[in-house]
Amino acid sequence: MRRHFAEDTSVPVSRTRGDIDSLLRKWGCKGIQWTDQFEDGLVILRFAWLFKDNSYMARFVLKLPTEAELRERAIDGRSYNKVSPNKLARLQEQQGQQEHRVLLLWLKAAFNAVEAGIVKAEEIFLPFIEGKNGQTVGEAILPRLNMLLTNNPVSLLTQGE
Fold first, then answer.
1. How far apart are CA 97 and CA 129, in angstroms?
2. Please, which of 44, 63, 74, 76 could form a disulfide with 88 given CB 3.0 to 4.6 Å?
3. Contacts of residue 50, Cβ cutoff 8 Å, sequence gap at least 6
4. Tell me, what's the pLDDT at 19?
5. Is the separation of the CB atoms in 17 and 86 below 8 Å?
6. Angle at 114 between CA 108 and CA 50, to 5 degrees
7. What are the residues facing 29 on neighbouring strands?
8. Rounded to an integer, what distance in angstroms lies between the CA atom of residue 160 and that of residue 105?
9. Hey, where are the domains in the chain?
10. Using 50, 70 and 90 to split pLDDT, how confident is the model at 90?
11. Within a 10 A sphere around the Cβ of 22, how many other Cβ atoms?
């Protein structure tokens, strides 16, 4: 079975968030917001970014296991399918560590690709840029992606206005 990046990390979420904050500040971000939605198992990172005299708001959403999913993972088959308190505590402690490390890795790679001239910043962050309505470009485009690829791209711009 293939191992996933940072699946066994012990780096606390708080440290990784600090690393992400430092990285974003280094790259010129003007504001950073973390939102935790515990019941939904969501972590949302938003950052304000000034690039070539344009101000952007980017949003990344991390999906974490909910408490119910953690409890299900903590079931111990050796003890009549009951939740193992030790296993549950360990899963709760590790919750979000891998996802945050992967986000940090992605952001580092993205900024380095921009710096190396491999891709333009607007291109790599385009799907994550939020409009004034709170919807990201990716959320707006993905449902109509097939239309974009099979029809005249101008028709995409007039849809839903």
1. 24
2. 74
3. 28, 30, 56
4. 98
5. no
6. 90
7. 49
8. 35
9. 13-130, 132-161
10. confident
11. 11
What is the strand order of the sheet 42-51 is part of? 29-37, 42-51, 54-63
- Identify any residues that bridge with 58 across adjacent strands, giving them in sequence order: 47, 129
* Confidence (pLDDT) at 153: 64
**pLDDT (tens digit per residue) in 91-142:** 888 889 999 999 999 999 999 999 999 999 889 999 999 999 999 999 999 9
Two structure tokens written together for 160: 């839903």
Is 70 buried (19+), middle (13-18) or exposed (0-12) by CB count in 10 A?
Answer: buried
Residue 45 has phi, psi (to 5 degrees) of -110, 125
Spell out the SS3 assignment of 72-141: HHCEEHHHCCEECHHHHHHHHHHCCHHHHHHHHHHHHHHHHHHHCCCCCHHHHHHHHEECCCCCEHHHHH
Q: What is the pTM of this model?
A: 0.84
Residue 156 has pLDDT above 70, yes or no: no
Pairing between strand 82-83 and 75-76? antiparallel
The vertex-114 CA angle with 108 and 115, nearest 5°, equals 85
Overall average pLDDT of the 57-84 stretch: 88
